[in-house]
Amino acid sequence: MKISQVKVENYTVFQSAQSSFSDGINVLIGENGTGKTHLMKLLYSASQAADSRVSFSNKLVKTMLPDDYNISRLLTRRPGSSHANIQIAARCEEDCNIKKLKIAFHSKTKKWDAEVIGENSWENAFQGESSIFIPTKEILSNSFNLNAAVEKGNVLFDDTYLDILNSAKVDASLGRNEKSRSKMLRAIEAIIDGKVIYDAKKDTFYLKKGNSKQEFNLVSEGIRKMALIWQLVKNGMLDKGSVLFWDEPESNMNPSYIPVIVDLLLALSRNDVQIFVATHDYFFSKYIDARREPSDRIIYHSLYQNNGELCWESESEFSLLENNGILETARRLYREEVGVK
């Protein structure tokens, strides 16, 4: 699966927007509240709908968690915004055909009872292809009985957290792409100084170093996030044809690890994994430009407000974005350091 385009009308903060995406890495930047995470959760829900057991509309409300699971609450909060229309297009690599998945709902729509068009052909085209969403907050350290607690209503987590736990627990590698996977695993092991193990009886993850193991909750969050990537790569969840969504990979991360994360994402992209990342970090964005190769397919997407309207700009290089809050902040800091107003 390669998500190629999205069109949204009256969905959360998006009154009307559309954009095309790279088959490789898509970097989403923008101030808080400009819809980066909402967009990724929308695309992730569509990707998950490739599974015949997953309903697109139901998955969307379980990742967004509107009150009482009412999809109508995802309408743009503006006068006259009574109907939402969304279209997501993706390419099937086997025959290069474009498949479209559409969803529409309005202010009277009950629960997740939205109108969905194209779900059957979407499933037939992309069945078996995996998609992963890594939330901002690390979750493996809270794995014990979390799924059961959510089902009973004792705690509230959206589906991105539950899905990432399940993906970390299940080994679906089957020996595929062993050579490229081993190289990525070794690179991460050098940072986390160990490997991840999962104790199914205790429903708990550990970081194993030599002959000893350490509970995940006793490991720093930055190391835990890198360890999660190690586990997903090891389990075959980030193989060719999969889609990775990662919300703020720089969060709680030692800055010295940023280039390693960038190298890992570039390696995954070259292994035919499509990637969507949302970031506020200057170094992360610049490292992608600095370490990319001419053949790498990268698009930067800037979401920004202009006179109360949410706008969308896309460029092939970070510095080419005209509306670039990250770069402007870096420039202001430089001017303050050198005493230039």
Task: Describe the protein.
With 341 residues, the protein is α/β, with parallel strands linked by helices. It has two domains: 1-129 and 242-341, P-loop containing nucleotide triphosphate hydrolases (Rossmann fold); 139-240, no CATH class. It contains ten helices and 14 strands. The protein has helices spanning 36-48, 56-64, 119-126, 146-151, 159-169, 178-192, 221-234, 258-270, 282-291, 325-338; strands at 2-11, 14-20, 25-30, 83-91, 98-106, 115-117, 131-134, 195-199, 204-209, 212-215, 243-247, 274-278, 298-306, 309-315. The strands form three sheets. Strands 7-11-12-3-13-14 form a six-stranded mixed β-sheet. A five-stranded antiparallel β-sheet has the order 2-1-4-5-6. α1 (36-48) runs antiparallel to α2 (56-64) and α8 crosses α9. The mean pLDDT is 87.
Describe the protein's topology.
Blueprint: E1 2-11, E2 14-20, E3 25-30, H1 36-48, H2 56-64, E4 83-91, E5 98-106, E6 115-117, H3 119-126, E7 131-134, H4 146-151, H5 159-169, H6 178-192, E8 195-199, E9 204-209, E10 212-215, H7 221-234, E11 243-247, H8 258-270, E12 274-278, H9 282-291, E13 298-306, E14 309-315, H10 325-338
Parallel strand pairs: 3-12, 3-13, 7-11, 11-12
Antiparallel strand pairs: 1-2, 1-4, 4-5, 5-6, 8-9, 9-10, 13-14
Helix pairs in contact: 1-2, 6-7, 8-9
Largest sheet: 6 strands, mixed
Outline, from the CA principal axes? globular
Could you give the order of strands across the largest sheet?
A: 7-11-12-3-13-14
Radius of gyration: 20 Å
The counted number of beta strands is 14
The share of residues in extended strands comes to 25-35%
CATH topology of the largest domain: Rossmann fold
Structural class: alpha/beta
Count of distinct structural domains: 2
Mean pLDDT across residues: 87
Within CATH, the superfamily of the largest domain carries the name P-loop containing nucleotide triphosphate hydrolases
CATH architecture of the largest domain: 3-Layer(aba) Sandwich
Multimerization status: single chain
Low-pLDDT runs: none
The CATH class of the largest domain is identified as Alpha Beta
Helix content: 25-40%
First-to-last CA distance = 48 Å
- Counting H and I runs of at least 4 residues, what is the number of helices? 10
Order of helices and strands: EEEHHEEEHEHHHEEEHEHEHEEH
